[in-house]
């Protein structure tokens, strides 16, 4: 039967609270008091399960009453609810600081009262149950002390057996370097037995050279009082072979003497180190091969451009019939096809050369004052012919007051050409490609190219950003074919200007390429220092 004590100097409040308390549960013992002193006398003899008290009372306030309840032998765990009006917020806080469990605002809401009282009574029952169980456990603990002592000794024996079976050198030393313990594995390495190792100086077990280094580390650990010390070091075995061990040293205190000792655990990692060396060699070889490939691409691109320029030049001469008419019109068509194919191949080779320069870190910028508005419009106009073949519209949103950009004009134009070409390639027929530019709040210039194509997953985005990356590799989808160089080259050009490229895409929801140039690239009318920098370059 839960016992509830209600303390309030007003009889009306006591009756209302008692009425609410009677509905908390069946068989509730309710005790009402108007005087806190009398209530305390009762609580000393009969410990309640819940106290509900007002704050403003004669002789002592609610905070003092709570402190006195908490000072009683069983008063610390009794839940106490303080009832106060909203304007008594400071009083309510004072009561909570004194140890109140909860508070309610007057007038008390019946449902809130019942809910909170039930919860606190439930907690009180659980506390009493836990306390009872704790007492029972204490009695059991006393009766099982001998059995626990035996179990502890057995556990210690089993622990030593486990340590002995570990494929690691485990030993403990005191401040003087005397061995306190060594497992079977370590004893075999040191050419002795665990029993014979105990009491000997560790220098006689590990050897003078090894011991000097270990002793230095032990002293360092004891001096710094660090949690642990881990390191790799070679160790010469009795058979003269040298193995690499990963050792961890930690401090532990002797329960009997209260002295600090050092525990060392060393694992043989020789095989792992050999694998690491092999992996490092393989990685170095791969990086060297990658560099060689990059240099090959650069050299090959240079070597191919010279004869290709001749092919393009001669085909132009033939197509224009500069040296006289060609008898068969088919030859004119062939010459035009040769010139067109040569220009396409020259573009691919130029892309490969640009990519090689980016990867080698040899990309050079020829900085000028770039009119972004005109550059965007020129590129959009040039790409309109390609887009119109599939009835794709290019829509530009460029503010007329967009400032100029300090950049390499050729590379900026190539960025727009690559991004627009990709957007057109991946847009559906009769689609729309949006190209817009803006000035951020901090004064930097941003550009976005958006298409309405198939979009990409996060994994496909990473493929598209890699060199020669082909997201849509279906050979039957001819319009998606390409070298896979446009986006990575554009990213390299933007990053060379100190900018950033973000690729935002969702499957079946198109793709957005956002280019951001740093503020120092924006050339405002009053940027005299930037103008001087351009003039000097």
Strand order of the largest sheet: 2-1-3-4-5
The largest pleated sheet is described as:
5 strands, parallel
Radius of gyration: 42 Å
The span between the termini is 93 Å
Outline, from the CA principal axes? flat
Fraction of residues in β-strands: 15-25%
State the low-pLDDT regions, or none: 475-479
- Tell me the helix content: 40-55%
Q: Which class best fits the helix and strand makeup? A: alpha/beta
Mean pLDDT: 81
Got a strand count? 18
Q: How many distinct helices?
A: 17
Describe the structure.
Helix content is 51%, strand content 20%. By secondary structure, it is of the alpha/beta class. Strands 2-1-3-4-5 form a five-stranded parallel β-sheet, sandwiched between helices. Strands 7-6-10-9-8 form a five-stranded antiparallel β-sheet, with helices on both faces. A hairpin with a 5-residue loop joins strand 6 and strand 7. Helix 13 (372-388) packs parallel to helix 14 (409-426) and helix 14 (409-426) packs antiparallel against helix 16 (486-496). The relative contact order is 0.05.
